[in-house]
Specification:
By secondary structure, this protein is of the alpha+beta class. Helix content is 48%, strand content 22%. The protein contains 14 helices and 15 strands. The protein has a five-stranded antiparallel β-sheet. Strands 2-1-4-3 form a four-stranded antiparallel β-sheet, covered by helices on one side. Strand 13 and strand 14 form a beta hairpin. Helix 1 runs antiparallel to helix 5 and helix 13 runs antiparallel to helix 14. The radius of gyration is 39 Å and the shape is elongated. The termini are far apart.
Length: 458
């Protein structure tokens, strides 16, 4: 009866200390607040959504914009409406009833239910993305402490008290050679999900619960008196120090040590092991309590997840390479690697837009290989292709990084230069004309050099 009250007082003290530490952790913000977590989740969600919409806007992909808005609003109950507005207030795209859910403000600041993400074009305000969200869930509290935190602390207190009471009482009786472990204590001990073993200072098992003994295919009684070091641990070498040995040699607590053991069926079980000292009234170490948390499934899931991540990264690399190849196929002439006709016009328009505000000149050169049909008919298309490739290489070496050179079609090529003088443009045209003559002489099959006709307009 005396031991019962000792265990009861210790259990109450430990449970009270645990609950107090939990309350302190809540006061310091270590226990997560639901509203803060919700706000953080909303911030990440809206940031990712805004980046996706802004990317689509930059590519003028209105189909993607509308589909994204419709999909997000339709699938996420917290998102009431989304709209994209220009700086002048005109709506580029919006979900239904956006005006119903969005309440305009003078300063355009964001709130937990209204997120306003500005869209900049250079340094100018192009517009904004407006996202209307539902209200945050109500958080009940008592004396400034959330009901969730109070319930959590109550669970910690009650659960800690029950666990401390049974473990301490069983441990005290196990360490007493004259005592016998009552069945009711063993049954309570067996309810613990983790494997728990109590050993003396020599490593002999004094107490074990069913969660641990079932892994070995025996009952708890069969383990009593056996050396814990002699259990079928995997890859156990003599030099390796087991966690309970570290504990009894001076470390009061050893946590999250990894051990593996063969089960009765021959399978490998992976444990996360914690151990703590048991001392007598004179602080002499007389044993240890060791817990075994089965993490086999968790490690298997982590391995599967890492494998999936690796495969996804590999797929992403393959997709990037394919996209790069498709981009080249869509924009480059396959024979000369110059811009094809469509890409040439795109580059011409982009360059034209950039130089119009500067009021500078644009030079266009149309280049045609003279009597190219005769070359094909006389020497064959393989020689004709060599001449086409030669012309493409000459153009790419003659023009600057800001210029546009493309194969217009057949034996026709076109070059556009921005911001150069007439004299400089004529010099480049002359360089192209003489280069094709000189370089074509190196094609052995040709009996006469290739000439070109070049039209230059500024």
């Amino acid at each position: 009866m005396k031991n019962f009250y000792v265990v009861l007082r210790i259990s109450l003290a430990l449970s009270t200390l645990t609950a107090t530490a939990t309350l302190l952790a809540y006061a310091l913000g270590l226990i997560p607040d639901h509203n803060k977590l919700e706000l953080a989740a909303r911030a990440k969600f809206t940031e990712a959504l805004a980046i996706q919409l802004i990317s689509a806007i930059s590519h003028n992909d209105f189909v993607v914009i509308k589909d994204t808005i419709k999909s997000v609003v339709g699938r996420n109950n917290q998102v009431r409406s989304i709209a994209i507005k220009k700086a002048d207030g005109s709506v580029l795209a919006a979900s239904e009833s956006h005006d119903k859910f969005w309440i305009p403000t003078d300063d355009q600041t964001s709130s937990p239910t209204q997120i306003n993400v500005p869209i900049l074009k250079g340094k100018e305000n192009w517009g904004s993305v407006e996202i209307a969200l539902g209200p945050l869930p109500k958080s009940n509290s008592f004396l400034g402490i959330s009901i969730f935190a109070i319930g959590f602390m109550a669970f910690i207190f009650v659960g800690g008290f029950a666990g401390n009471f049974f473990v301490l009482r069983r441990t005290l009786k196990a360490l007493d050679p004259a005592s016998v472990i009552p069945d009711r204590v063993q049954k309570a001990f067996n309810t613990l999900a983790e494997g728990v073993v109590v050993i003396d200072d020599g490593g002999s098992i004094l107490l074990a619960n069913s969660s641990f003994s079932e892994d070995l295919g025996v009952n708890t009684t069969a383990l009593l008196g056996h050396k814990i070091d002699q259990l079928p641990w995997v890859n156990q070498v003599e030099e390796q120090q087991l966690p309970w040995l570290k504990t009894m040699e001076g470390n009061s607590v050893t946590v999250e040590s990894r051990l593996s053991m063969y089960s009765h069926s021959g399978e490998t079980i992976n444990y996360s092991t914690n151990s703590t000292q048991i001392t007598d009234p004179n602080d002499k170490i007389v044993g240890a309590i060791v817990t075994f948390d089965d993490v086999t499934d968790l490690e298997y899931k982590n391995a599967e997840l890492n494998k999936m991540v690796t495969e996804l990264q590999k797929k992403d690399t393959e997709i990037r390479l394919k996209n790069r190849e498709l981009h080249i196929l869509a924009t480059k002439d396959p024979l000369t690697n110059c811009l094809n006709r469509r890409a040439f016009f795109d580059g011409f328009n982009e360059g034209l837009e950039s130089i119009v505000p500067k009021n500078t000149s644009v030079c266009c050169m149309m280049i045609d290989l003279d009597k190219f049909k005769k070359v094909n008919d006389t020497y064959g298309h393989s020689i004709g292709d060599q001449v086409i490739v030669l012309m493409g290489n000459i153009l790419k070496s003659a023009v600057g990084s800001g210029d546009v050179a493309g194969r217009y079609g057949g034996e026709e090529f076109c070059v556009v230069r921005f911001g150069y003088s007439q004299a400089d443009n004529l010099a480049i045209a002359e360089k192209i004309r003489t280069s094709i003559i000189e370089h074509s002489k190196r094609i052995a099959a040709l009996r006469e050099p290739i000439t070109t006709s070049i039209g230059v307009a500024t």
